[in-house]
């Protein structure tokens, strides 16, 4: 009989403007627990230096910043993660709207660069063993669907919007906060589906926000899936660089 499997869902890291203490807490958990799979939920990279939003903002487009940030993501994030995960762990890369800045938008504007700036090549994702999910696509763990969420958007209740749209249990990122909503159907044996929005792993007070209040939270998702494809999804909020689990263990920079 196949065993229960555990997956980490990491949404919206936005390197290099990640919350480093939150990411360190996730890595601390991975190093002390067996993880069967890791899913990047989209917007792993911020790509502010090539974003169409910043064309008239040279402060966000420093010379050499694209190459530096891609190399930094390799060395600071992907290399340590590869070492921490089991060699046979499933690894999934879901493309977010910020990766679109380099995979689609930049190439549409400058087609002569096509083939030079492939994230697959620059980040060595095939060699690292990643399954690639294109923009707007989804991955599935048991009965749970994982998407970035740009195809759903934000609004007042994205958790409701995603489950109303998909009529499946879906988890997404994109909006950097925590939310859940349950949809019930009178048909389908009175089936119920849950929409979940995960917290982010980026800074919650970015410079472009100019200090405006927001509802952003740092955290990640933990999925435990059983052999019959049923599952439990645990959204984990990281507070001041640490979180605690029901077994009493605390992870992160302030862990004893």
Could you state the order of secondary-structure elements as H and E? EHEHEHHHEEEHEEEEEEE
Name the helicity range: 10-25%
Class by alpha and beta content: alpha/beta
Strand order of the largest sheet: 4-3-2-1-10-11
**Distance between the terminal alpha carbons, to the nearest Å?**
37 Å
Q: What's the shape?
A: globular
Q: What is the residue-mean pLDDT, rounded to a whole number?
A: 90
The major beta sheet can be summarized as: 6 strands, mixed
CA-atom Rg in angstroms: 18 Å
Say how many strands there are: 13
Strand content: 15-25%
Number of helices: 6
Low-confidence stretches: none
How would you describe the overall organization of this protein?
- Helix content is 23%, strand content 24%.
- It has helices at 20-32, 65-84, 100-109, 119-122, 125-128, 158-166; strands at 5-10, 37-40, 90-94, 130-133, 139-141, 144-146, 170-172, 179-184, 192-197, 218-225, 231-238, 242-244, 250-252.
- The model has no long low-confidence stretch (mean pLDDT 90).
- A hairpin with a 7-residue loop joins strand 8 and strand 9 (192-197).
- The chain contains six helices and 13 strands.
- The chain has 256 residues and is of the alpha/beta class.
- Strands 4-3-2-1-10-11 form a six-stranded mixed beta sheet. Strands 5-6-7-9-8 form a five-stranded mixed beta sheet, with helices on one face. A two-stranded antiparallel sheet has the order 12-13.
């Amino acid at each position: 009989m196949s065993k229960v499997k555990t997956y980490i869902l990491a949404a919206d890291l936005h390197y290099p403007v990640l919350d480093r203490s939150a990411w360190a807490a996730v890595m601390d958990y991975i190093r002390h627990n067996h993880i069967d799979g890791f899913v990047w939920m989209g917007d792993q990279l911020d790509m502010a230096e090539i974003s169409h939003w910043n064309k008239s903002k040279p402060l966000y487009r420093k010379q050499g910043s694209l190459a530096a940030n891609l190399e930094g993501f390799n060395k600071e994030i992907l290399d340590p993660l590869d070492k921490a995960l089991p060699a046979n762990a499933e690894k999934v890369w879901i493309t977010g709207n910020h990766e679109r800045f380099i995979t689609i938008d930049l190439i549409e504007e400058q087609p002569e660069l096509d083939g030079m700036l492939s994230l697959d090549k620059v980040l060595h994702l095939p060699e690292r063993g990643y399954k690639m999910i294109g923009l707007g696509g989804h991955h599935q763990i048991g009965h749970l669907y994982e998407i970035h969420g740009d195809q759903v958007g934000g609004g007042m209740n994205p958790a409701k919007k995603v489950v109303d749209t998909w009529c499946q249990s879906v988890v997404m990122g994109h909006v950097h906060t925590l939310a859940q909503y349950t949809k019930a159907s009178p048909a389908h044996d009175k089936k119920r589906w849950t929409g979940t929005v995960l917290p982010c792993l980026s800074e919650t007070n970015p410079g472009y926000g100019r200090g405006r209040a927001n509802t952003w939270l740092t955290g990640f998702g933990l999925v435990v899936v059983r052999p019959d494809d049923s599952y439990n999804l645990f959204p984990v909020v990281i507070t001041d660089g640490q979180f605690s689990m029901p077994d009493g263990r605390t992870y992160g920079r302030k862990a004893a």
